Amino acid sequence: MHSQKKIRVGVMLNRANTSAWAFDVLKEISESDYAELSLVIYNGDKRNRPGNKFTINKFFSRFKYLLSYLYDRIDSRLFKEKPDAFKQVDLTAFLAGIPEVTVIPVAKGLSQWFPQADIAEIKKHNVDVLIRLGFSILKGEILSATTYGIWSLHHGDNKVNRGGPPGFWEMYLGQPVTGTILQVLSEELDNGTLLFKSYAATHKYSVNLSKNSFYWKSGRFFNRKLKELHMHGFDYLKQQHRRDLSFYDRPLYTRATNMQVILFGTRLVWKLFSKGLQSIFYRNQWFLLFGMNKNGEVIQSMRRLKKMLPPRDRFWADPFVIFKDSRYYIFLEEKIASQKNAHIALIEMDEKGNWSQPRKVLESDVHLSYPFVFEHEGAFYMMPETKSKNAIELYKCTRFPDQWVFHQTILENVKAVDPTLFRYNNKWWLFAGIAEGSSISRNDELFIFHSDSPFGPWEAHTKNPVVSDVRRARPAGKIFHYKNKIYRPSQDCSVTYGYAIRMNEIITLNENEFHEIEVDFIEPLWNSEMNGTHTFCFEHNLTMLDAVRKHRK
Questions:
Q1: What are the backbone angles phi and psi of residue 222, rounded to the nearest 5°?
Q2: What secondary structure does DSSP assign to 58-120, as a single string?
Q3: For strand 111-113 and strand 137-139, is the pairing parallel, antiparallel, or unpaired?
Q4: Calpha distance 543→326 (Å, rounded)
Q5: What is the Cα gyration radius of the chain?
Q6: DSSP element (H, E) containing 23
Q7: 338-349 confidence digits (pLDDT tens)
Q8: Percent of the chain clearing pLDDT 70 (strictly above)
Q9: What is the pLDDT of residue 56?
Q10: C-alpha angle with apex 470: 469 to 476, nearest 5 degrees?
Q11: Considering the chain, what is the average pLDDT of its residues?
Q12: 260-278 in b/e burial notation, b at 16+ Cβ within 10 A?
């Protein structure tokens, strides 16, 4: 523990109400054992008051952006999400008793400077960190008025998109991911000390839906880093994403003009029309691909793989393989179109690649998928995904390979997908994609837990989430050893769910550290009818993966 005292936090607001996502940030701080709210700084500029939103001068000055504002309103009404990240919350009662300072900043263009007298007043409160949830672009001495500076979110990858508005330009330019950073503000726009960086999938049809998701998620960054600051100190935080050089070679983005919105809207209408047309005539179908190699070699040319096609009324996905007594036992998710939930099925294959028709081996009253199967102390266990139960469950095999019974719940109250076990250095490691809120995607963040037993109890990794990137967070199959290295397949859900597989080499794995590097990726480009692949499995001489194709209904 670096410090026994709570971190003293000040919050910067435009007024005594704020968005729901920001209220959650403040509520978590007030309930924590590592930080406390010590000061509220209000923006006293009259231009921030609700009654002054619309004026004639503002109308004419913003006329060339009129369609942009109109799009924002239409988008937020057509594409609503619950819970709404931007629902307004009155903070009057919540902040009662916390010292206040009201500042009328000096504005020059879009930037604001604090008067010297206000800075002196703020310093009297001995605040460690200021969190910016209001005001505009801050300049001057206020940036260094506290011990650890002003922490602020920028909803955009600061290497790709500086400026704003949040979420719009990624969708306009067709960028598959939208970045978010938590930074300590500096004089240079969006180039402060980087504390955290994350990537989420850009919504294809709505900026509002994109924003709702990544605002809920990014609000959690403040408390993750405040907790680390309390435990390890500021030098530790700065080293996590240290950059000695950080160049920016893109435009400084601003609100879209009317002509840009017309172009954007035309493309958007066409995308929505095309999607609707395809849904009438086509259905996605997941199927399997496999190939045999000699001497335990992974097949690395995807064109060599053979198709294993299901009947038209169902799909097969998520293959996991056990090799036993010269035979491959392939456990998979099978979903029949007429049935609500998927079940776990089994295909048997000999060493020549001859395979049997699947048979059902496990079903439940909830959707089952991702049948992670492993052996422990002479018994076989299966850990399928049961996300609708908000739990990770374990099943035991009473007669291999087709009789399974519920064994125990190993994690409760967790929104987890694709749970994956890995035995390493005399410990069991549990990897899973987890969402820490109802509106946060399970594709975005990877969490790790460790235990001395596959049955628990489980302890969270100190750096959770160890990956916050929709392009490589979510597990995509069994972690495996190959040529003295450890590889973790992961899903790339940036273009669409289950678009591609990223292959990552695990370099460091212990209770306090996790480091992996991406070594290669598999995109669904070797066959024109495919548009996704999301689970990879290598066992003995067999390489398997799944893929998705469109076919006529």
A1: -55, -50
A2: HHHHTGGGHHHHHHHHHHHHHS--SS-TT-EEE-TTTTTTS-EEEE-PEEETTEEE--HHHHH
A3: parallel
A4: 15
A5: 26
A6: helix 20-31
A7: 999 999 999 999
A8: 97
A9: 59
A10: 110
A11: 93
A12: bbeebeeebeeeeeeeeee
